[in-house]
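Might I ask for a little of your time on a matter of protein folding? Here, with my thanks, is the record as I have it:
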Amino acid sequence: MAGYAYAQQQHQQQQPAQKGKKRKKGAAAATTDPAPAPLSMSYKARKRRTLKAQKKEEKEKEKEKEKEKEEEKGKEKESEEGLARLTLEG
């Protein structure tokens, strides 16, 4: 009986190797990065695909920076308006 328990314990510790990545479904699939270009594609096609993805990432970063700048400008205007009100009241 002890041998059976030992074998069962060893079996639980070993994880079977995954043969391939499991696909995510729904919203999780949309948030993941695009799959890398397969080696069966030509060199130029892989390069074009990676450059396209890099450009897309750069555009997203620029959009985020612009949003941050707009938020800062909005905060500055609010603070200036607040100072103006204080000076008028005081």
The chain is about 70% helix and 0% strand. The mean pLDDT is 77. The radius of gyration is 28 Å.
